[in-house]
Amino acid sequence: MTAKLTASADGSKILIGTAAEDALEIDATTKTVKALSPYVFEASNGVPAGTIIDFAGATPPAGYLACPLVATNISRATYAALFDAIGTAWGAGDGSTTFGMPYFPADTVGVQADANVGTQTTGVIKNHTHPTGSLASGSVGGAAWGNNAPLNAGWATATQNPTGGGANNLAAGARVRKCVKY
User: Fold this and answer.
1) Are 86 and 122 spatial neighbours (Cβ–Cβ below 8 Å)?
2) Residue pair 28/13 in contact by the 8 Å Cβ criterion
């Protein structure tokens, strides 16, 4: 990629970007730098606003917010770069001064998406049963099991019991703090 540097006619502004898009505007009069694209990388670490990371510590690193466990609105002005990057994908907030930040309910995982970013999914486990019963005397082994007999042919009583467990289907894994770059 080739960088492009353009100065205004009076020399008060410089535009830096690519042939396709200007990314930064440097104003010599006000001595400010303005991002013209929400995807401008920070010079300090190269991570764009809106990037979500898994962090192993309890406190988010500098420049990051901990993603909450429930839908949470934050200021569009205070977190302008984050708002420019993600918009209202995670919630419109009050519609003018706040927006929804990325959130991840406890004990859920992020799911890759090419659309509907910011929406939540609900885990589902397929309904099924497990056979139970007691073995009839002398019915184990021998030809009965080798002649395509039904799986529970050796059971004196066979019933179908629904599976048990917790209220949620919880994936095994290590807990980390989800953080978003602002």
Assistant:
1) no
2) yes
> 104: buried, middle or exposed (CB in 10 Å: 19+, 13-18, 0-12)?
middle
Alpha-carbon distance of 152 to 145, in angstroms, equals 10
Domain boundaries, the chain: 44-108+175-182
- Model confidence over 32-50: pLDDT tens digits? 777 666 555 444 457 899 9
Residue 133, both tokens: 């019963």
Q: Which tens digit of pLDDT belongs to each residue from 3-29?
A: 666 777 677 777 676 655 666 777 777
d(CA 58, CA 61): 9
Please give the radius of gyration of the chain, using alpha carbons only, rounded to the nearest integer: 29
